[in-house]
Design goal:
Elements (H helix, E strand, L loop, with lengths): L6 H28 L4 H9 L18 H12 L3 H21 L2 H12 L4 E5 L15 E5 L2 E12 L6 E13 L2 E10 L5 E6 L10 E12 L3 E2 L5 H37 L1 E2 L2 E2 L4 H29 L5 H26 L9 H9 L9 H13 L2
Parallel strand pairs: 1-4
Antiparallel strand pairs: 2-3, 3-7, 4-5, 5-8, 6-7, 9-10
Helix pairs in contact: 1-3, 3-4, 3-6, 4-5, 4-6, 6-7, 6-8, 6-9, 7-8, 8-9, 8-10
The structure holds flavin-adenine dinucleotide.
Flavin-adenine dinucleotide binds next to helix 4, strand 1, strand 3 and helix 10.
Length: 382
């Protein structure tokens, strides 16, 4: 058994940490307040090669692996979750479907600009009436004169309304298979007539990440924009979510680590009753608990990433990692605010933002309830 990262991965972690601390941290509070997507920072992340990490060089990627992507997401989230989710969704949800299911032509056309960090893309699964039950898609697509005609809508979609956004890959009902809906994936470029990218949602957290509603009204795209085989769209999107869950787990680990680092510094510096508050056992034990849970979540997340990199089945492990890491992250953020006392409730202290940013980790890419259902299904075999 070997629990160590490679020297290259350790070096890369230092590079991303340095970038996060020098470039993102000084702007994080302002980004949270203005809720503006910081295009210049995201382009710098592209310049570091972050958006191409798990893809081969022939597609504009860095030829690294999924584990290295998780390291980058973790390090960004230690400082700012909005930039971490922009990377996670950009690679895991935007680019990965093209890499895994695209034809050679589609990879050259759509994956290369994403992997180079020049553009972003979205993953359009959730709808107003189809969330946890994502197979209940109502968006429909039919072929007419060599084109797909798409009608419907999507909710809560990340990375489609930014100045860098190029396209969204959606699920749409393209027919019937007996009693079940036939669902396919279709690439819809931003700017296609009839495709409306709605206003940004006002959110509890992840303020600088772009999340919007999308509407499709008689949208016409070429038939060759079908991604993967017709009828395989739902199955393929579920495959994407396995990797996505490990990556969200990495984001949760980073947030929890950020809470720990901020809280240790504060517990050493803040004095009450003539002593640093870290000398009170009630505070010290909170730190011990956050540290222990963060380390256990990290083990689960990188085991999932390790399995993914080796092509092993990792559905159950992905759900376990996401479930555990997201729940300990929410607890870590709550306890970090408690350790900071009243200052934890004030926006200029990062733990206040971490607290608001943490909750969605138990919701996005499958709620905690859905993760428990998936784990139980794997255990029970039905
Ligand atoms: C900021 C943000 C970004 C997002 N980005 C994207 C994106 O890029 N692309 C995308 O496609 N989606 C995205 N989502 C959507 C996200 O994946 C969904 O919100 C999530 O899957 C839950 O769906 P829902 O919101 O419809 O909740 P619902 O499915 O309506 O669930 C409501 C509650 O009921 C529970 N529940 C539902 N069914 C069951 C059941 N069978 N048993 C037990 N409990 C159940 C849920 O766990 C939850 O507690 C994003 C969401 C947010 C908030």
């Amino acid at each position: 058994m070997d629990f160590s990262f490679t020297p290259e991965q350790n070096e890369f972690r230092r590079t991303v940490r340095d970038f996060a601390e020098k470039v993102i941290a000084p702007r994080a509070e302002e980004m949270d307040e203005t809720e503006e997507f910081p295009e210049d920072i995201v382009r710098q992340m592209g310049g570091l090669g972050l958006f191409g990490l798990p893809f081969p060089e022939e597609y504009g990627g860095a030829g690294a692996d999924f584990t290295t992507l998780c390291i980058a997401i973790e390090e960004l989230a230690r400082v700012d979750s909005s930039m971490a989710i922009t990377l996670e969704a950009g690679v895991g949800l935007g680019a990965m479907p093209i890499f895994l299911f695209g034809s050679e032509d589609q990879k050259q056309k759509w994956l290369v600009p994403l992997a180079r960090g020049e553009h972003l893309a979205g993953f359009g699964l959730t709808e107003p009436g189809a969330g946890s039950d994502a197979g209940g898609t109502q968006t429909k697509a039919r072929v007419e004169n060599g084109a797909w005609i798409i009608d419907g809508s999507k909710s809560f979609i990340t990375n489609v309304g930014t100045p860098m956004s190029l396209f969204v890959t959606i699920t749409a009902v393209t027919g019937k298979n007996g009693n079940t809906q036939e669902i396919s994936n279709i690439i819809v470029p931003v700017g296609t007539p009839g495709f409306t990218v709605g206003k940004k949602y006002k959110k509890m957290g992840w303020h600088a990440s772009d999340t919007r509603e999308l509407a499709f009204d008689g949208v016409r795209v070429p038939e060759e924009n079908l991604l993967g085989a017709k009828g395989e769209g739902f199955k393929n999107f579920l495959t994407i979510l396995d990797g996505g869950r490990v990556a969200i787990g990495a984001l949760a680990v980073g947030l929890a680590q950020g809470c720990l680092d901020q809280s240790i510094a504060y517990a050493k510096e803040r004095k009450q009753f003539g002593r640093p508050i870290g000398e009170f056992q009630a505070v010290a034990f909170k730190l011990a608990d956050i540290a222990t849970n963060t380390e256990l979540a990290r083990l689960a997340v990188y085991r999932g990433a390790w399995m993914a990199d080796r092509g092993m089945p990792f559905k159950k492990e992905a759900s376990m990692a996401k479930l555990f890491a997201s729940e300990i992250a929410v607890t870590a953020a709550r306890e970090a605010v408690q350790i900071h006392g009243g200052y934890g409730f004030i926006n200029e202290f990062p733990v206040s933002r971490f607290y608001r940013d943490s909750k969605v980790l138990e919701i996005g890419e499958g709620t905690s309830e859905v993760q428990r259902m998936l784990i139980a299904r794997e255990l029970l075999g039905f």
